[in-house]
Amino acid sequence: MKKDQMIPGRRAVLRIAACLGAALTTRLLTAGQAQTPGSPTPPPPSGGGQPVSGPGAPLKPSTYRLQPMTEGAQSGYRRPTPPVRKAPILDMPELGRTMVLTFDDGPHPDYTPDILRTLRKYDVRAMFFVCGEMADANRDLLREADDDGHIICNHTWSHPLMTALRPSQIRGEMGRTSEVVEDILGTPPLWYRAPYGAWNRYAFEIGSEMGMEPLAWTVDTLDWETPGTDTIVRRVLDGAGPGVVVLNHDAGGERSQSVAALRRYLPQLLDDGYRIAVPHR
Fold first, then answer.
1. pLDDT tens track for 81-115
2. Is 114 a catalytic residue?
3. Which pLDDT band, with edges at 50, 70 and 90, does 173 fall under?
């Protein structure tokens, strides 16, 4: 046998050893590539292993979804600006068999507390269109109304005829009232009403800029004329209907008739199957 020829058994052993060595070398090379410095670390298998931490760690799915929405955003949420209307909202038929009670010009220490007690007795909510100077002078009353769940709205600062004002004056009347309401309650009003129902293009534009919707009324009780409690009650009951907005006053003059009328017509409306509620934005 020549020297360079191997015994068949030894040749088989060497062939097996060579195969094992190649497999081990390939495994070591693969492991080395996976841990090369500077290369990205693969994420752990789903459902097992420890989460990767540190500056290079991937974001959790929930965090990733939230980041584009919150990054650079303001801390306080502000509603979208409402459209600039050409006429105020007069009623709310979308509320179904529901009526909305509104009170203008207050709050007043002689009349608003009695109105709040009556509303509280029947567990209903109303809208109070406040004048800024009255709200500023009766802050505790405004807080009481807000605590009871009533909607506080803007009725200008001093109850002027807005159609006789310059745009800058309208902005001052409405803006000053929104500021004092926000100062007292923490949030600005979302609804406003022009004194005397006198609207113009500037009022609609400025109100929209301030984030407010214009609300007028369907039924005017004319309680400011002090026509008598019976007359006020009759006007409300005769005008009752789904989505009707009723105008009352809790300041701006002697309002004892308005207080007494509410005590009478409110339970009658409820007995007739009407809900008394407020709109939400």
1. 999 999 999 999 999 999 999 999 999 999 999 99
2. no
3. very high
In this model, does residue 21 exceed pLDDT 60?
no
Which of 91-95, 140-144, 213-217, 263-267 has the least mean pLDDT?
A: 91-95
Single-letter amino acid, residue 141? L
Give the predicted TM-score (pTM) of the model.
0.73
Of 108, 136, 249, 250, which one is the catalytic site residue? 249
DSSP assignment of 202-262: HHHHHHHHTT-EEB--SEE--GGG---HHHHHHHHHHH--TT-EEEEESSSS--HHHHHHH
User: 275, exposed or middle or buried, with CB in 10 Å at 0-12, 13-18, 19+?
Assistant: middle
Which token pair is 34?
A: 């996976």
CA distance 242 to 67: 45
| Catalytic residue flag (residue 249) | yes
Which residue spans within the chain are E strands per DSSP? 98-104, 127-130, 151-154, 191-192, 213-214, 219-220, 245-249, 275-276
